[in-house]
Amino acid sequence: MVWDMCSWHDMGPLIRLETTLTGDRYLSILPDHLHSFMSIVHSDGLGQFKQDNATPHSSRVATKWLQEHSSDFRHFHCPPKSPEMNIIEDIWDALLHAIENRSLPPHTPVDLWTVLKDEWCELPPRYLQKLVEFMPHHIVGLLCVHGMRY
């Protein structure tokens, strides 16, 4: 399993998780990786952090930590059972496509991790920016399909 994040400006850390993500394990990622990335990329405190409603993300300990650090960056909370509105899914599709199109595909978990990190670092900032710019259109489409309940 992998945890990741990105911003308008750049790709953030790609963290390899050896076990299933729990609220407590997620709490160990937030200060070391999220907080440091946000303080560098959004030193003005105007950055926004968005995550889905996975159980570890919405755990009591993670929610408390995010509330305690609300002056460092904003946390965009997704409504329960909301449709996917995260650009990270598009990024993972692009990574999968890049890995599948390699002349030498990875054959071991170590090879896959190495290739994944390489491809992650190769994603250009303009690609991220296009995904972010498209998000309002994506949300309008979701509202048209699902109605105004979101």
UniProtKB/TrEMBL annotation:
Residues 52-103 form the Tc1-like transposase DDE domain. GO terms for molecular function: nucleic acid binding. Pfam families: DDE_3 (PF13358). InterPro entries: RNaseH_sf, Tc1-like_DDE_dom. It comes from Araneus ventricosus. This is Tc1-like transposase DDE domain-containing protein. It comes from the Eukaryota.
